[in-house]
Amino acid sequence: MNEFHIPKSYVAPLLITGILLAAHISFGILDTYTKLVSAITAAITTELLLHRFVTGKWRNLSSAYISGISAGILVRSPMIWPFALCAAISIASKYVFRFRDSHIWNPTNFGIVVMLIIASDSMAVLSIQWGNNMWAMLVIWLVGLFTIWRVKKFHICATYVTFFLLFAWVRSVYTGQLFLSEVAPLTGPMYQLFVLFMITDPKTTVSTNKGQMLVAFLIAFVEMFFRLGEAVYAPFYALFIVGPIAFIIDKLIREKKERQISEK
Amino acid sequence: MKKETINKIVVTLIFLMLVSVPFGMKKYDEYANAGFVGAMEEVIERYGFFLEDVTSQIGVDFVHVRASVDEKLLHIEPQISSIGASVSVADFNNNGLPDFYLTSSEFGTKNALYMNLGNGEFVDVAEELGVADLNIPGLGASMGSIWGDYNNSGYEDLLVYRWGRTELFRNDGGEGFTNVTEEAGLPEHINSNTAVWLDYNNNGYLDLFIAGYYHEDVNLFDLAHTRMMPDSYEYATNGGLNYLFENQGDGTFVDVSEKMGLHETRRWTLAAASADINDSGYPDIILANDYGVDEIFINQNGERFFNTGQEAGLGFAPKSGMSVAIGDIMNQGRYSIYITNISEAGVLMQGNNLWVPTRRSSGDIPRFRNLAGNMGVEIGDWGYGGQFIDLNNNGNLDLYVANGYVSAEPDTDYWYDYARVVGGNRAIIIDANNWPAMEGRTFSGYQTNKIWLNDGAGRFQEVARSVGGALDLDSRSIAYADLFGNGSMDLIVANQHQPVIIYKNHTKADHNWVGFDLKGTKSNRSAIGAEVILHWDDKITKKQVSGGDAFSSQSQRPLHFGLGLVDQVEKAEVHWPSGIIQTIEGPKLNRYHVVEEAEDESVVISTQ
Hints:
Structural class of chain B: mainly beta
Radius of gyration of chain B: 24 Å
Number of domains of chain A: 2
Largest sheet of chain B: 8 strands, antiparallel
Shape of chain B: globular
Radius of gyration of chain A: 19 Å
Number of helices of chain B: 11
Oligomer: heterodimer
Shape of chain A: globular
Number of strands of chain B: 39
Order of helices and strands of chain A: HHHEHEEHEHHHHHH
Number of strands of chain A: 4
Strand order of the largest sheet of chain A: 1-4
Strand content of chain B: 25-35%
Distance between the termini of chain A: 46 Å
């Protein structure tokens, strides 16, 4: 009998859709469906048009769907346009910022950080909004981590969470704040999406497991400094800086190794 | 040039265009809403009014002082004690002039009752009349007040709600007040920030709705434990109970909250208002809840209230409801509801809500749609009192919105620490011990109040800086009243831990108006809940006598209608809570008409 398999490329879209549905049914996190639909539509349209324009081909839209749905969840604004614009910028960044024919930023991470720079008076990011229910949080973490383990990315999340906790303790010692209040953000929805989806993005992570764990550590480390500087969206800024640098270094190391092998 | 290079250039240009969208929108917005700065006469010519700060000229020097809470909360005291500045208006001595009552909160500080002397000056008579000393350890700290003639004596009585015991003062002929709290049977302890007089069963006696904010078991001045903060930032379930006290007509009240269906939720209610929003003849209750969704309780013939927030369309997206105002903004004879929330650039963008009735509104449950964005009244700041007022007497209700949370050390900010904790799990957020110390930092402070002018065609324009009303104190409660008897709505703005500000409103001389001062006979004497429907210039404008609304406020009792250049009104229909309808044909303009409720069902009065 054939075992039922979900193709890898559909795991993330299904997972994020599941999390969204669970959150919306439990807490009604979407003000209106219009905003989410605007984000997904903008992401898919931008992907279709730019990919066709640049390559002359049509492409699979699952990553655009994830970027759209992520923007729909992460952007918080009473207006509709920030949702669509964030999604469109996220997708467009993939065609502008490239190294050795690969995009270097996680698209949604890029879109969110740019939007925080250019439109902070019109939007915020999901951080203090969403439920604060322990069971909902545990279920999302467990289902998410299980799925991430199935696609062999668990070590990235585990490394990041471990070092977040360690640096939370360091911060609490340094600032005199309670350890619990330093850990508090990790128990919120922003981190669920950040840890499960952004830092595990297969397109923008480095190639080896050890390298991925090192990058996860570095993100947590850089984030500590943003947090000491009281940046509410510290993890996004940390990934924005560490992600592309690590990606480029990884590419160069791989190229060097390949050159050495071919020279031999 | 290679095709690949051209493609790269085109894609980069598209990217740059996308990134420049917010900049372009901002520039257009600045251009479209460029404020006009000029002399008072020029401003009046352009906008129809000008606000002049006359606080010190008229003898008012009141400063609110925030309450000092239990030392376990000392590290976050400015946010715990961020409310308590309030204002309510009434003609307590029946001399035809509006007076106003202000609350302070710190133990030992006094509340004030400013009596209108009729010559443009006011004098504080609270001490003399026995309503000053209400911030007392063990009894409570004042949070707000409302006026209503609960015993139908012809004089407005005063209710002061507190974090502690709610106090009711009977008005003794305008010459003094007697504390009747104990005989009235009101509860010993509620942490309340809003109360509303309404006659929920239309029996001619005013009943009392009081909402709880903190849980009633919490004594903020002597804490048993620190797990008294909201258990969620958006879905909190551990707020205070809401109460409905039925007036027995003999000076006593009976708690009918549970029987009437008002104990079903424990939201953190910060503001309430009452109006008959489904035209059933019975007053409904609208609640703005902090850390949760807005609610509408529909009154079913005075027998029970049903929470219809979700069906009505406004009980879905949780925000931080701070204030409820009700007004017929389109002059269509239908009420819209304005609820302020919190917007802080880059951190929390909730936007204020303007709930406008939709065409699907019919039957018992009205339907609303949030049109705050479409009409341009969405993005405030950290909002508190938001009130509909026709500031320029042109017949369209404008909006005054108070903003600003805690103005402390300039160039400091508590938002990072706040966001860190409130996004966390229930077990963390609920305990005040887990909240980082504020250490004198500003928290959404130094924000400017908004004045949005209604163009009558579905858009509002922000004009605060142009018209003299750009106040950047931590404003909380706002009330309007014709303090100087010239037919324009003057403003009283109560500010937290700061002085009250009184604005004299100079309106365009050729703008007409008409007012109605209603006196109930079968209905409650204060006429709270009565509506005037004005037929004028092919429009129908509806207003109701309010028993308290917006954030901790109550404005003048007589209903006021601006008319612009229109020099004739067809008729005014007065719909009393008793069901009686009186019609006033062609009421004379630029005066208040005193209307006493008639015995008969339909009486036509001609004042021409």
